[in-house]
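User: I'm preparing a small set of examples for a lab meeting where we compare how different chains pack in three dimensions. I only have the primary sequence for this one, and I'd like the structure in token form so I can line it up with the others. Please keep the answer compact; I'll paste it straight into my notes.
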Amino acid sequence: MRFSDLSLAVLSCASTTLAARNQTKPSAYGQWMATSFLSKNQVIRHTYVPAVTLEGIQRVATVNNNEDLLEYARSSVSSLVSANGTVTGYNDTYYTLDDIRMGNNILHWWAAGGRNETKYEIAAHRYRDQLNRWPRTPEGGFWHRAPTYANQMWLDGIYMADTFYATYTSYFDADNVTAWQDIELQFDLIEEHTRNHSTNLLYHGYDETKKAVWADPETGASPYVWDRAVGWYFVALVEVLQVYPQSLPGYAKLASYFSTLAEGIKNVQDVSGGWWLLMDPELAGKEGNYIESSATALFTYAFFKGVRTGLLEKEYLPVANKAFGLMLDDFIIYEKNGTLSWNGTVEVGSLKGDASYEYYTTVPLSLNDGKGAGPFMYAASEYNLALKNETTVAHLDHAPEKKIGQPASETAKLHAEIAELKAALKAERESKTYKRLQDQIHALREEIKDMREDKNFIGDHLASSVLSIMVQLDFQRRIDKGLVVLAEHLNA
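Assistant: Understood. Below is the structure token output for the 492-residue chain.
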């Protein structure tokens, strides 16, 4: 059976069964999302987004003993790795930590296959050998990307590369204390340069030379706490702690980093259950800021796993469970064909430019982005494990149940409509003045005031999304049809 046939068959079966019950338990959403992504014909290539998505599918498939989904995840990774260990799309002379992420998928399937599939082992060695040649800061940290981000470390990079570094070391070089200390060093440097000791949160990254336009003159840190970077780092800590030798001093240090960050993240959770795009406490509810889905998923996963593995106290379960319920309500879109879509994920966050508030808050959202859907599947897998664990299930309040085909919440529908509007705006461009667009944005703001369901989220979020369209478009090229669509949307 072809995977396209498989996905439709599984969806049909799931839809029929769940429709008969007329409601879906929260524990079913991981498989539902995974199967939905099969039906969307996602492109599998050597970048970190497919790596994250495939890992999400693999996780929910493993927890639910779904052999079809497991085979999809395995064969997708296998298709990138030739018999001689060459990985399609991987260039070991190009130094970007994002490209190391697929190494985790390769290691997983090498281990899951009995550690006897040579092509995976050869490929893993190639990733590890590249780390030996990686450009480093004077203090020993991996450059995020060379030469583009010389002497810069970002929280994102710890997740992309150091989880692989640690897992590889545990498999092939477990007695290499120097390697374990080097892994610890990467976290130490991030903590030293980016930790805000008042909030226990971490800034997006730092420049050791302090030459970047955004660098703090004393610490070199960037100015804002960007949610997904913190999410990647939080997950990296819980993952590395699964394989780091407890006999080494670095283990206790990493565990302390994890618990301290957990406290900081918990303290800034919004009453809705999610987390703001920019997490600095004083920015909660500020115009342009909004509750973002990918970090909410990453935090939820790490909280659930931290409790399950004994790294966190059970007091964090309500934090994770509230966030999980929010994701079901606000970030999942229930399509008419029985599939799920994922929304509310910011497209990108970078320290390439000025790292300003305006930059972060005007980046558009991306529909069905694996950077959000993948972590949601991570979180769903841990939710299922929490339900199966008799010592923790009593502490969980089940998330709200959903009916098959039930419309998404107002916030989720707005996410979808924004995505459609962005597509319309890109479709036809006509010359319009910046002044006219500003007038349109002002009018939109007035309309938004009347359609707010949630003062701190829906209205401000829609406004910031429209503004992101404005910023991204060439100021000499405006879209008449897109503005008409916007007007019709608001008048509907």
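A couple of notes for your slides: Confidence is low (pLDDT under 50) at residues 1-22, 391-408, 426-435, 452-492. The chain is about 55% helix and 5% strand.

User: Perfect, thanks.
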